[in-house]
Design brief:
Layout lengths: L20 E2 L1 E3 L2 E3 L6 E5 L6 E6 L3 H19 L4 H17 L1 H12 L3 H22 L22 E2 L2 E5 L5 H14 L3 E5 L6 H12 L7 E3 L4 H9 L5 E5 L2 H11 L5 E5 L5 E4 L5 H13 L11 E5 L3 H12 L20 H16 L3 E3 L15 E4 L6 H4 L6 E7 L2 H9 L6 E5 L3 H10 L4 E4 L18 E2 L6 H4 L2 E2 L1
Parallel strand pairs: 1-5, 7-8, 7-10, 8-9, 10-11, 12-13, 12-17, 13-16, 15-16, 17-18
Antiparallel strand pairs: 2-3, 4-5, 6-20, 11-19, 14-15
Helix pairs in contact: 2-4, 3-4, 4-5, 9-10
The structure holds NADPH dihydro-nicotinamide-adenine-dinucleotide phosphate (NDP).
Length: about 475
């Protein structure tokens, strides 16, 4: 139990000015949708309607792709890399200038704690634009896209064309940055669709593009649901598709672009193992476990949702972990003391409830700290399952919520076998004081990112991506440029 209560420390929402309705951002302007259909976005912490956004239809997506094509051919591709860089630096600085507003807006629309949107999401968004701005005039050094037989440094890598990008709701503005910054640095133009439940920071980003005087059509933002996403990725004049979201939709997208000229990168689900060896620094490991699964309400594709603890220390770890979980503050995302905010949508809450109920029905033991949840909004108390077997659905399926499944192992070989026993392969964590063990285990894990004695750390210079059903292609770092350069 907490040793003392915290007084409320709410961040003011006066800094954001949410309009009652938004158009689509096409060719540098906000325009009304041709479809006349709209949808509402709500604050998941209060269920209050925040704004109405357009449900972009076929004609809207087509207008956006045509604007992107024109901008690509006439302005962005011919522009020297150093000039593109200036726009990206300008966007990065505007994001920093508006960081408090963007953090508050993100927390209101998504439900994530302000502590995270302020200290993690928005700083990383700016960092991505700064990082890729630096690449825009150095693409020949990226190591990709050189024509066969050309002299080193003798041929400029070329952009691909118009990128159709579809992103999820868990890190709305950060996923936009992961997609847009490398695409623009490499000379492509984009049509991006944000998730239906979190469109507002993408629309604020559209304003930032206007403020930065970005040439019309370089960035286009079309709001809508899954059908709008389908229209974006299946548009015949899109050359490159980039998607982050569920494996199920990723599979459908891969099928729809098969046999076309389009290039694809997919960042999909995960079921990461966070492995705690008996020689690990336990207090630090417990912080890492908490950060691994309760950061962003567990709405994280690389979340450490399967805890693998060496059998000799499991009681000790669970004892510490439960004590730590009892201190987590769940509630108002705008309160600066909040650790765990609201679940992003009623649908996602239902999915978390459903899979947790399956965990109990299949025989795992469920535990949560005593916790009072707000009366309105979508909430789920941080939850721990012990007695989990590898066959249980909660050990195999992505729950995408604050739910941790605990398994045990005896030997390093067993830890590796269990960690790799998943259809996914996005990330993993290793906790031990032996450097040699970290290297030996990391080498055997089929995961795109392996953290050692830390978890959920991100940096724009570091590539991120998966194996197996977690998708293909890398985002971030020099590798992230490859997806946006023609070979
Ligand atoms: P989706 O994969 O459906 O959503 C991701 C994005 O794709 C959204 O913008 C979505 O639009 C769009 N989309 C949906 N259908 C299509 C389609 N046929 N073609 C193109 N784009 C499409 O995830 P959900 O939000 O439905 O979440 C369901 C589950 O997916 C979660 O419970 C979680 O397990 C997993 N998930 C994993 C993520 C990850 O990063 N690993 C991220 C998000 C979800 P719209 O928002 O309108 O649905």
């Amino acid at each position: 139990m907490p040793t003392f209560d915290y007084a409320p420390a709410p961040e003011s929402r006066a800094i954001v000015d949410i309009r009652s309705s938004y158009g689509l951002f096409i060719n540098g302007e906000f325009v009304e949708g041709a479809s006349n259909e709209t949808r509402k976005t709500v604050n998941p912490a209060t269920e209050e309607v925040l704004a109405e956004v357009v449900e972009a239809g076929e004609a809207d997506v087509d207008a956006a792709v045509r604007a992107a094509r024109r901008a690509y051919e006439k302005i962005w591709r011919p522009m020297p890399g150093a000039s593109r860089a200036k726009y990206l630096y300008r966007i990065a600085r505007l994001i920093q200038e508006r960081s408090r507003e963007l953090a508050v807006l993100e927390s209101i629309d998504n439900g994530k704690p302000i502590r995270e949107s302020r200290d993690v999401d928005i700083p990383l968004v700016a960092a991505h634009f700064f990082y890729y701005a630096g690449w825009a005039d150095k693409l020949e050094h990226a190591g990709f896209g050189r024509r066969p037989n050309s002299q080193p440094g003798g041929s400029q890598p070329q952009p691909i064309g118009v990128a159709g990008q579809v992103i999820p709701w868990n890190f709305p503005l950060l996923m936009l940055a992961w997609k847009i910054a490398p695409a623009l640095a490499a000379g492509n133009t984009v049509v991006l669709k944000p998730a239906e439940t979190t469109p507002l920071t993408a629309l604020a980003f559209a304003e930032i593009c206007q403020q930065a005087d970005l040439p019309p059509g370089v960035v286009n933002i079309v709001t809508g649901a899954g059908e709008t996403g389908r229209l974006v990725v299946s548009h015949p004049d899109v050359d490159k598709v980039a998607f982050t979201g569920s494996t199920e939709v990723g599979r459908a997208i891969a099928k729809s672009v098969a046999g076309t000229h389009k290039r694809v990168t997919l960042e999909l689900g995960g079921k990461a193992a966070n492995i705690i060896f008996e020689d690990a620094p336990i207090d630090q490991a417990v912080e890492g476990i908490v950060n691994g699964i309760f950061f962003n309400q567990g709405h994280v594709c690389c979340a450490g949702s399967r805890l693998l603890v060496q059998e000799s220390i499991v009681d000790h770890v669970l004892d510490r972990l439960k004590r730590r979980m009892a201190t987590l503050r769940v509630g108002d995302p705008l309160d600066k003391n909040t650790d765990v905010g609201a679940i992003n949508s009623a649908a996602q809450l239902e999915r978390i409830r459903e899979l947790s109920a399956v965990g109990e029905a299949e025989g795992a033991d469920r535990w949560s700290p005593p916790c009072e949840l707000p009366a309105r909004g979508f909430w789920f108390v941080p939850t721990l399952f012990t007695g989990v077997s590898q066959a249980h659905r909660i050990a195999r399926e992505e729950i995408f919520g604050p739910v941790l499944s605990v398994l045990t192992f005896r030997t390093p070989a067993e830890a590796v076998e269990k960690a790799n026993n998943t259809p996914y392969g996005l990330s993993a964590g290793i906790w031990t004081e032996k450097g040699s063990r970290i290297l030996a285990i990391a080498d055997q894990l089929r995961a795109g990112v392996v953290w050692a004695n830390t978890f959920n750390k991100f940096d724009p210079s570091s590539p991120f991506g998966g194996y197996k059903e977690s998708g293909y292609g890398r985002e971030g770092g020099r590798h992230g440029l490859e997806a946006y350069l023609a070979h």
